[in-house]
Design goal:
Layout (H helix, E strand, L loop, with lengths): L46 H5 L5 E6 L6 H15 L4 E5 L6 H13 L4 E4 L4 H13 L4 E4 L11 E4 L2 H16 L7 E5 L5 H16 L4 E6 L4 H14 L5 E4 L2 H14 L5 E6 L2 H9 L4 E6 L4 H13 L15 E3 L4 E2 L4 H4 L7
Parallel strand pairs: 1-2, 1-3, 3-4, 4-5, 5-11, 6-7, 6-8, 8-9, 9-10
Antiparallel strand pairs: 10-12
Amino acid sequence: MQSTHRIWPRIAMASGATLAVMGLLTACTAGTPDSGGAAEPAADTTVEDNAATGDTITIGFSGPAADHGWLGAINTAAIAEAEKYSDVELVVAEGTNDANLQISQVETFINDKVDAIVLLPTDGAALTDVAIKAMDAGIPVINVDREFSSTFAARTTVLGDNYGMGVSAGTYICEQLDGEKDAVVAEIAGIDSLPLTQERSKGFADALDDCGLDVSNRVAADFTVQGGEAAASQLLSAAPKIDAIWNHDDDQGVGVLAAIDAAGRDEFFMVGGAGSANVMRSIQADDTVLKATVIYPSTQAADGIALARLIVQEKGMSDLVESSVPRKIQLYAPVVTKENVEVYLPSAFES
């Protein structure tokens, strides 16, 4: 699909940024590597402590090209989060889907001695070595969405829950079909070769199995409007009767709904995925077959910015008894319906 967002050009970094000399992981975080020299965060951190202005830090941020509404929202939210803090200077690298270019961006951050790096890698495995290089230089890396292939490559990882998305979608469909054991459930997946698609499909299948259903018809698209329309047209031609559809991605869902309208089909209900604003408005209006969507948070990089600040300033998460920022945080995948859409619409992204 054509994205409605653009990635910002690389912002020149202010000179004189100080490298925060800190341990990569604290000794009290179990199961993580110890690089030595770790500074302990203050015990009993409060909300007021975390909000208080500290020493100014520089955070480097790099993510893929915003060729998808969700990715555009990732970047927008990260920049907006940094702007909340007078003690954070954010350096934004140009968005790219070229792993080699992104590696060079991280190397520039290392050479410029930023205090932390928030990185949504275009390819987690390909960016692992340079992330380890940053960690070895004493620069904490916050890994977002696509995991590195080594534990040593990140201080903290912020993830969505792809398996949980499938579980949430399947559970909602089970509840709506309420014991209809012969119901026809269809699935329009994303790119089948991606682990995230495989995890979503597995979660969906597991949830359906729990209520005695399975996926009767399944096609895969490519997270684009055009791909969604083509895949949905194929599905509708192959399945003369459907009771429920889960479409993995709301951006490709624009095409899916176009195909449904063109086919004149309305005997089923549909659940979306990711949580776009246009889908939520449709759910709110209740004027299509689309009745729900499952959130895949576009706040992950913004959370990464907030966590990077806490880590460098040796603060913790005030709502946890543990005084250190956790090594891994996985965000929830709630179902958005007409009843709760007003809660989620303000933070939704535009497809």
